[in-house]
Design goal:
The chain is mainly α. The chain contains 17 helices and no strands.
Length: 430
């Protein structure tokens, strides 16, 4: 329902709807907690800038997979809404191929896409045409609660479902609890005992899955193991090389979720010690340049919440408690609205009047109108919305603004409620 004209832009949204190398931390956390928000913002800006490159460095493991991690990273730190919308659009384009065919989907990939979609507040039943991602993931669980033969994907599936209203199936929780080793850790393949150096990444992800499922006891035992094996600098031993920010990022996030704030802040300090001047994060101390994937993982330690509680804002000026936050976010993440402050387009301007030209762009994107049409109107030459106006006219949705001649469109004029009614009547087949 529409309200007063100053709120038209907002209300339209509602309508269009891994021995001996272990070194324990010997002192309480000394991380500069107050520095975490600034470090997070710098990392987010680095990610956004990298995303604009022809070949972003974090795409080394595949573009679509990286876009899920971009969504997670930006949701964790907040900000860079335009980059988040771009990442979701890229994910939309490659999701089906990344997941695999229905009935034979890659569980980990399916779970990551579902999680990204839930974080963005997008409908999981329509994100990939003809496939309900949540229903598909749930249907992939066997009667014993197993989604995948290895702990990592099992945990991802549980985290993704933990982000949905239906939550995590009890059988899946029991299955993961059964994979926990006596020391509290988890191994990638779920076999126990683990090695002399724990699999930090898998254990951290399992902690988040258990927390998402409400299994706080098992999560607490695993969190104690991570805290006890943390190095004095906030990192963790690595059986395959030097301590790295990937492990510190996901472990720090998990420890924070489990209430181990001192250990989480110490992990954040390690991550910040490897941040470069331009905001990116190095993978290991020996590197001199920022590493794309390390940046996406490292930022998770910088104060953000657990995966299943993350949420993206489509626009910087629309807080989560805004009356029309859900509808506006849908407009942004669906690509119908690109923002109101080009070229940054970080804002939506929810209380600004809507022009007829802006409405043309909204309807053309929402209805996927492609016919370029004729140059019907005399007053839209040079308007950034000229192409949209022509497509709207070609579809028979607009007839002009100066009847009976109707040779003008009035692209800069505000839209009245009556005009809105006429446009929607024609657009929706009335």
């Amino acid at each position: 329902m529409f309200v007063s004209l100053p709120k038209l832009r907002a209300t339209l949204a509602a309508l269009v709807v891994a021995s001996s190398g272990l070194v324990a931390a010997t002192a309480p956390a000394v991380a500069a907690v107050e520095d975490q928000p600034a470090a997070a913002a710098q990392a987010a800006a680095w990610v956004a800038a990298e995303l604009d490159q022809p070949e972003p460095s974090f795409d080394v493991f595949g573009k679509t997979a990286a876009r899920t991690d971009v969504v997670f990273a930006l949701a964790s730190v907040g900000g860079e809404e335009g980059a988040a919308r771009q990442a979701l659009a890229d994910l939309d384009a490659g999701a089906e191929a990344y997941i695999g065919p229905a009935g034979a989907a890659n569980v980990g990939a399916l779970a990551k896409v579902l999680l990204a979609v839930e974080i963005a507040g997008v409908d999981a039943a329509t994100f990939v045409e003809g496939r309900d991602l949540e229903a598909e993931l749930r249907a992939g669980m066997d009667p014993s609660g197993i989604f995948a033969s290895e702990v990592f994907s099992q945990s991802l599936a549980m985290i993704a479902l933990g982000a949905t209203p239906g939550g995590v199936p009890a059988a899946a929780t029991a299955a993961l609890e059964g994979m926990q080793c006596a020391d509290g850790d988890f191994t990638f393949l779920g076999t126990c005992p683990g090695g002399p150096i724990p699999d930090v990444d898998t254990t951290a992800l399992a902690i988040q899955a258990l927390i998402a499922a409400g299994s706080d006891g098992a999560a607490s035992v695993a969190a104690d193991l991570l805290a006890d094996t943390q190095n004095a600098d906030g990192s963790w031993p690595n059986a395959f090389g030097d301590p790295n920010t990937n492990s510190a990022g996901v472990a720090g996030q998990a420890l924070r979720a489990a209430g181990r704030v001192d250990a989480a802040d110490l992990a954040a300090e390690f991550v910040m010690s490897l941040q470069t001047e331009d905001g990116g994060i190095r993978f290991v101390e020996a590197e001199t340049e920022a590493n794309g994937f390390a940046t996406l993982q490292g930022v998770l330690a910088l104060g953000g919440g657990p995966y299943h509680d993350l949420a993206l804002q489509a626009f910087a000026d629309v807080p989560h408690d805004h009356l029309f936050a859900t509808e506006i976010a849908w407009l942004g993440f669906s690509g119908i609205s690109q923002g109101c402050d080009p070229p940054a387009d970080d804002n939506f301007c929810p209380t600004a009047n809507l022009t007829r030209g802006e409405m043309a762009a909204f309807l053309v994107r929402a209805l996927d109108l492609t016919d370029p049409g004729d140059d019907t109107f005399t007053d839209d030459d040079g308007s950034v919305f000229e192409g949209d106006i022509r497509r709207l006219a070609a579809a028979g949705i607009t007839k002009g603004c100066n009847p009976p001649i109707n040779d003008n469109f009035c692209p800069d004029a505000s839209l009245t409620r009556g005009e809105m009614a006429a446009l929607l009547f024609r657009a929706l087949g009335g």
